[in-house]
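Researcher: We're teaching a course module on how sequence relates to structure. For the next exercise, students receive a sequence and then see the predicted structure as C-alpha cells, so they can try to spot secondary structure elements on their own. Here is the exercise chain.
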Amino acid sequence: MKIECTDKKTFQLTDNGQSAGQLTYKSLFSYNAEIILTNSDRYEIKPVGFFGTSIAVTKNETEIANLKMNWKGQIVMTFQDGQEFVFKAKGAFLDKYFIENKKEEKLIQFDPHFNWSKFTYNYDISYDKKPEDILFVLLGVYAANYFIAVMSGAIVS
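Model: And here is the predicted structure for the students to work with:
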C-alpha cells in the first residue's frame, strides 16, 4: 500500500495500483478533513473541545472514533466498540510511525518520504497481516500528518 499526496490537501491510498480511498483536508492549515472510501462511505474528522485537543471521527454525524495525543507524544485511537490502538513514532529522528494494539503488537508501519520539490509527504505502508479496514489505514495517515504538524509547531486553525 502507498499514500501519495496529490495536491497538498489530498492523500490518495492505493493498493496494488488500485485506489482504495482518500483523505482530504478542508484547507492547507487545518485539522478538519474528510475520508472517502471506494464504497462511497464518508467520514468527517474535526477537532473538538475548547482547545481542540481531541479529534472526533464521525459518519452521518455519529461519532465512531476519536484520537487524542497523550503525554508521551503518542496518539491514542479509540473506537466506539471499545477497541483502542496507539500511534507511535520511533527512530532516531522519530521518522517511523507505527500503529500498535494493546498488546504492543505492531499492526501497521508508515514510512514517510518527504518530496522537496512539492513540499509534501508520501508514505509507504507495510504490515504483517493486511488490514481489512481501509478507514483504519487512512486514520493512521491522518495521525501521521497530525503528529508531524504538532511536532513541527505548525499553526493550524
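Model: If you want an answer key for the exercise: The chain has a mean pLDDT of 92. The domain at 2-151 is CATH 2.40.160.200 (Porin).
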